[in-house]
Amino acid sequence: MPQADSTGFADLDALLPRLGALGALDAAALEEAHVALLGRKAGVLMLAARSVATLPLEQRKAYGAAVNALKRRFEDAFAARRDALDVEHRRRTAAGLDLTMPGRGRWIGAVHPVSRVVDEILGIFRELGFSVALGPEVETEWYNFLALNFPPDHPAMEMHDTLYLDLPPSGEAPGGGELLLRTHTSPVQIRTLLASRPPVRVVMPGMVYRKDPFDASHAPGFAQIEGLAVDQGISFVDLKATLAHFARRFFASTTRVRFRPSFFPFTEPSAEMDVECQLCHGAGCAACKHTGWMEIMGCGMVHPNVLANCDVDPERYTGFAFGMGPHRIAMQRYGLCDIRLLYEGDVRFLRQFGPAAGSAR
Amino acid sequence: MNVSLRWLEAFLRRPLDSQDVVEKLAMLGAPVDMVQPLHLDLSPIVVARVLDVAAHPNPKMTRVRMTLVDDGSGEPVAVACGAANVTAGKLYPFARVGTRVPGGKKGPVEIGARSIGGVTSHGMLCSLDELGLGSDSDGIWELAVDAAPGTPLLDIIPLADERLVVDVTPNRADLLCHKGIARELSYAYATPFRLPPIPGAERLDVPPARRAGAEATVGGVRVAIEDTGGCPRFLGAVIRGVTVAPSPDWLRRRLEAAGVRAISNVVDATNYVLLELNQPMHAYDVSRLRGPGIVARRGRAGERVVTLDGTQRAVDEEMVVIADAGGVIGVAGVMGGAESEVRSDTRDVFLECASFAPARIRRARRALGMSTEASYRFERGVDRWAAADALRRGLELLLTLTGGTLAEAPVDLWPAPSHPPRIFLRLSRVAQVLGVELSQHAVEKYLVAIGATVVAKPEDGRLAVDVPGWRPDLVTEIDLVEEVARLHGYDAFPTELRPFRVGALADAPAHVAAGMVRSGLAGLGLLEVSTLPFVREGSNASVRVENPLSAEDAFLRERLLPGLVREAERNWAARTRDVRLFEIGTVFARGGAERPAETTHVAAVLTGAVEPPHWSAATPADSDVWELKGVAERLVALAYPSASIQVEGAAFVARAADGRIVGWAGPLSADAPPWAAPLFGVEVALDPAPRQAPQYHALPTTPSSDRVLALLLPAGATAASVIAALRRAGAPLLETVDVVSDYRGADLPAGTRSVAFRLQFRAADRTLAAGEVDAVEVRLLAALQDMGIRRRGGTAAATGSSGEA
Ligand SMILES: [Zn+2]
Questions:
Q1: Which of A108, A186, B412, B497 is most buried, taking the most CB atoms under 10 A from its CB?
Q2: How many Å apart are CA B152 and CA B39, to the nearest integer?
Q3: Cβ-contact B234, B225 below 8 angstroms
Q4: Which of B365, B375, B478, B530 to probe the A interface (max A CBs under 10 A)?
Q5: A252 interfaces chain B, CB cutoff of 8 Å
Q6: Mutation site, B32, B371, B528, interface A, largest A CB count within 10 A
């Protein structure tokens, strides 16, 4: 059994900080504190005062005096704070201040919802050792198609409906040819690999263009984020692990993903990554066409021909690449039904993506 | 590719659940876009036997007869029937009262008990049209099967089907037919597959084709290949004595389920083989061939052909054509000619089954501006080595359906026979790319499943793999690695994060700079927009799109502001008055180089109140030139830190350190409603150079001494020139100069204004004495005197010194 002279006094000392804190409490919190400390039934100090009678005689006097002194100090502090609150309240009421009136506003500024999504995605890949690379929006056929292993005169070329520029072909080396608006950010892979040696780990955001008329789900230009990792020993397992990690960070830690075989000329094996539909969580709904899955990105192991086209030895180095569409992801994330909203400057739409939107008055 | 689930079931000889098939195909790389149920709405229709047929009691109702029908319910029901072919004792499809029939063009019909000429009819005997199965038959559908009355129609006639719309990637030519899809499912379900039998073809014995070089004769038709590059293999056969007629139901249903319209038994037979085996074929009417035979050769300049669609087309030397003595009778692999088309009176048919070079077919169909089922497949690659089997299948069908006979064994022109490629696969490469060690046994199993032959056992860790002819996409080792991964199942690979080396590259400075601009401008209460770079009009320097979506999108923008003005107008149209937008985007201009110059710009537009209204004050002011200048200065500081804002006429320009103009700010004209506030804009190039780190100056340890100078400025004197003069004359003690006020009043001398400046003096090493500051002030006033500027009213506005600004 602990000795009252040691434990009892220590408990009293532990209450001292609360004495100083009383001065910051509002009226409601002050009453709560009063009940806890000086409440008749269970107030800490009242219990301590009652316990004095149970102590051995030689300890009663000193401990009893200490309890009473502390009780008095708390009673004084409570009274002082009550007075102060009362004065303040009367002063405000006298001045006619209604503090529930709205504060002075500032115009809400906001980054675009697609920029938000891009920044968030890039941030996750930065954690995984990727840095950001950029490339031009006007490209040559070589960078956009041939270097990426699109076979000339093959139906794969029709996967992209290309907008060409009314300019003479470029004779630059390497990689001239017809000038066009890039149809994907993948040419930045080529530029990065030509400019630097492995290990390469880059994410490449940017706008891409297709000859696709505007409708609720298509646009002639949209953002894309490309990713590329090339080094010795990079495998399909690394591809899956990296992108699954991304999905769990971007969506939810419990989000399920699946990889399906697919085809892109510049990767092999190629895959499509689906994530569990964020609306129905796999049960199936209209948004996911009742599959329970949402297609998020295309990916795959960098095709040996692409590495060779960039003077990287495909026997020694392997890599993975991926590409995703922030416009589509923004539509899913924010529940937009019409992609055109993302291209219009409607203030009523854009300000919803500002800070503190929807916070309490 | 439209796939019939029933057809697949016939291949696999087991029932299939469409949802399960969809899942399995997705995980094998052939996603299904859509599942369309076919004829499931016929499930309430039953088989019924007509027991008795009698005239309608009303003699005027000559076309309607009253029948007694056994629909299996026990009690015969009275049914009126208007069809002439209704016969007692026969079986017909029957819709009971309360059911729905899908109907033909008129749409679905609800069947009720209804009175016809005073007699009640309880149900309906149905025609094909009423069941939604076609309109080409008169009367009700007499069922040529034996079934108990009351049996659901769908149980005895396999009408119900599900059409899977499979999204086949351009590399997988083999999935453009039912056999190819069945092969994948055969692996997925671990069950063998085989060609479904053709009803009635069991006793046929089609002789194997006779191999020949570049020329042979079959059934009196001379066949030759001249263009062996464009047409490596050509098989043909002649069938005599055909009867061109509609195809039987089973074939029509198969084609319909695959989305192809039935035409006649001859055409349907070729379409069936196309859908089943991916081999396009073409049938010619032998009697319409001119001269002794046909040849596959290059087109000739000036030659023309009327194709099956009735269009006259010019061929060129790069196209492979089929020609007879009279000229071109078909564009090989794309579309046959109308001249030799099989018609209802055709008796003898020449059946072509050939291989064409994919690139040549692609070029031809693009030159002709068309795409057909045949060209789509030849472009992607048709199995050259399976052509003889496909021809045999086609002949079995034709002979069964048309009643014709084979003139003689088919011919097989194949001047340079070859084998599908052999690829060497290293198990070490499989492990390197896939990150998982797979056993040789497993790898072989997967390769066999796709139809490859693993010919040699490895001594040096390599497998020699003969790929199947139907997989033209398998060319190099990595193609086999992908197949191994695909059949192993992508989901079977682990997803553990393994150690990696980080890249050595820093973030692109332009990306970092754009990020700072973005957050800086959002912090100023501006909303980011993102518009597309296409514009309707351009200048001499504009880049033009060669194939724009529309005339509205013919050029690439040179500036961002016009797009932002449009967005301001959009907001006005939505009755929003206060608009503050910015954009970071690419602009394009033709420069000296081959590539157009591509620059990232930052632009902003402002109109309306500078801050939201608040109840505590009057209506806030609208954005004016000072709001613009302030925002422009911040924008330039963010986007092009080394540039500065200068006055240029009624607007501003941003000038880089080297004097180049890199930005503009000023008032903008727009299509504004009368209630709109003035519109201002700023546009600056984004300097892609890395940003300098901020420079720290040690905080002062001595107090400053502040003075306010109210100066009378004559017309033409600018604040900037005064500040510059003050700074020159006040150095080194003058630390800062701020404008405090600008007063114009009648009490001032004519043509002058009074501008007050707050001056802050400081010496780094001592507290300034009042006399020292007085002396500098005298110097300043003297310097200003040369500019015609003097102190207003001569009053000195001195303040005490303090440590704060
Ligand atoms: Zn869903």
A1: A186
A2: 13
A3: yes
A4: B530
A5: no
A6: B528
